[in-house]
Amino acid sequence: MGTNTESDIKTRCAWASSAPGFPHYHDTEWGFPVDDDQRLFEKLCLETFQSGLSWRTILSKRDNFRLAFENFDFHKIAQFGENEIAELLSNQGIVRNKRKILAVINNAKRAIEMVEKEGSLAVFIWRYEPDENTLPPPEIQTTCAESIALSKELKKRGWQFVGPTTMYAFMQSMGLINDHAESCFMREEIDRARKEFERPR
User: Is 13 among the annotated ligand-binding positions?
Assistant: First the structure.
């Protein structure tokens, strides 16, 4: 007869129990604020690949994506040519969608431009952090004014697969928004992390 562990009885966001890898991702990553450019770029790329698919699919392949895309070093990805594209299209460990692969390569080039212009991806992205007082209760919406504005500006700068809903999911996961459910045991921890987080300038 099994016994419940502390992890089993914690109240999490509803989505966190929908796949085997989700509880760990939910408890250790989702919603913690991030200011590392490589991690931010990785999440933008994974959100690109998720378009039309489930996060469960992408998360289960994340290690394969990291290996295939040079750990999401955008300076290296920007140099990818026909040989690398062919290798990616034959890689069964990732999502083999040519449009998305080309979008990631394009966005790597745009990321380099952004760092040159803004100083870092983090400085630019965190300008779009929403005022928490303007957001509805958690788990209600899939876009906000800031995700729409971020999407619009990225598209203006030549980025691809960066729609408002994709940007909202990105903002949730990278800590620009605390969208953990009110009843979720992680909500207070994310609040503390966000208060202690030094916004990039």
Answer: yes
